[in-house]
Request: fold
Amino acid sequence: MLKTITAIIVGALLGILGARYLFVGSAVSLILWAIAGVLIGMWSDTRRQAMLNGGLFGFVLSFDFMLSGYAGSEPVLSRFPFFALLGLFGAGCGLVLGWIGFFLKSKLTQRKRLS
Reply:
């Protein structure tokens, strides 16, 4: 449970930082987010946990990024469905990144056992 909460908090923080402060509009943000997603997968204990945590990380990051960066004239509540849709895309990306992280972790630990 702690790892899931941590993944959500990291996603929220990176979403806010990405929208407000760090490298807005550059590929650097995407690279940092991808590294964080892989690390979340590597930190997880099971493949299922890695994919769940990665998906939650991706959803929260995408949703929070859109919410934090919103500066439109329409009320922000009217944009929630669109932000949630983009959050689902982020969840899919985070799920894949979590799986990749767990896969890398399993290969590294397997290699250590063989040595």
The mean pLDDT is 89.
